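Sample entry (89 residues):
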Amino acid sequence: MGELGYSLKPIPIYGNNQGSIFIAFKPVTERHSKHIDIWYHYVREVISQKYARVFFINGDQNPTDMFTKNLGSVKFLKYQGELGLEFLE
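Predicted structure, serialized as tokens:
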């Protein structure tokens, strides 16, 4: 998009796992993170070039839980509105 003259803001990425957020910022190789393929370290490059920004969000406030968990109707309706989703008849 930059080549077409569009300037984009960094894409926000929200996560509730502090370990993954730490790995995204710090190029640390520890015993527990050696299994991560080098290809996935591309995320670090994207963050360092300011194409994306990573933010922490509490697990009980994460609207993407709607796609990965069975939610009660209260949370479902709340997250549905936050994500701009609506049912068509």
